[in-house]
Every structure is written in structure tokens, then in C-alpha cells.
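Morning, I've got a small favour to ask if you have a moment. I've been staring at a protein lately and its backbone has me curious. You're getting the sequence in one-letter code plus the fold written as C-alpha cells. I've dropped the whole record in just underneath, so have a look:
=====
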Amino acid sequence: MNYVREDFSYLGIPGISSVAFPMLCFCDILEERARLQPHEVNYGKFSIGLKKTWGRDKGVQPVHYLMSGSPFVKDLQSAFGIALQLDESDSPSGERGVSDFLVTTLAYAKPVWGLNDKGENYCFEDECEWRYVPSNLDGIPPFIPEPTDGMLENYRKTIWRPETFLLPFSYEDVDSIMVPTDEDIKRFIAIINALDATDDEKDMLKTKLRRS
């Protein structure tokens, strides 16, 4: 779990150019070589694939990819314009619920195109990203508007509480373990053999090893 800063300047919403949300991120491209190889350049060649049934049961949600200037984005801009004019202290609960929904929409939103961490023009849609954004944060802010690096560093230390915010999975939930070389497969077999697991679980995990 980590606070991730998202750039929303492309939406043109006053006061919402950058927001950080707590989230776990996944991608759905392990079986698509054309998408997997560019992804590995940015994120590395080692990955663990989990079954979609696991993600469904844990509440993992696909990201909405937004195209600036589209009818959907124009409606989103209008909705935020109305919500930002509301005085939360005087707003009925239904209107506050609409504001909460718009914030959640942003938490699961990404531009189709934009600049990646390297400053390169990048097609984010190619990642087929899924996210888990926790709803019960026990005093930790659900989002941080216009976050500074110092703020993010402090909150990232606070949110690292595995017993609360991480998503547990069992060995049976693993669909594949992607590694780049045959030597890595041998190395991972040794790692699996050292796990505190049953022999059947170890044998099952070895069958999940794949070359990326």
C-alpha cells in the first residue's frame, strides 16, 4: 500500500491539479507480449500474477481511462464545478454523497495519454491497470490534495501497516510467477523450496514459474 500522486491537470478542475490516493496497483497484461515488454522496461521483469477471482473477492477495480475533451470528461468537469460550490456544512447528505462519489471516481481515474515518471509521453491505457483503494482508513486521509514530497513521505510511513492495509493472498491464489531467464527459474525453485509451506504447495508454485 502506498500514497500515489496522480496528475489531474488535464481535467482543468480548479484546485485539483494533483491528488495523492492510498492504493495498491495491478495490471492485466501478463498474457499480452506486446504490452508486457514495454511494461517491463518501466517496472521490471519479475512479477506475480494473481487469479482474477482473488481480485474480485478483494474489491480490486479496473481503472477508468479518461480522454481530455470527451463528453464523459466534460460531464465530470461540470459535476466537480457544482460540487466545489457546495458548502459541506450546509449540504444534505445526498449532496455530500455525490462529492464522495466524485472523489472515488478520481481515485480510479487515469488519462489515456500523459507523461510518465521519466517525463516521456506514455499510453497509460496499455497497462490495463486495476486498483485497490481502501475505504476504511482509520484516521489516515483518503486523499491528499496538492501533496508535497515531504507530505507524501510522512504519510507513506504511516500507511505501511500490513495488518490493516495490505491484501492477503494464499499460494492457491497465485496464477503465475514471471521471471526473465532460465537461471532465475532455478533460483526461484530454491526460494520456493525454502518456504514455510507444504510439499504440495511448493510443487504447485513451481508449476506457476514462467519466462517473461
Remarks:
- Residues 71-85 form the longest helix (15 residues).
- The chain has a mean pLDDT of 86.
- DSSP finds eight helices and twelve strands in the chain.
- The radius of gyration is 20 Å.
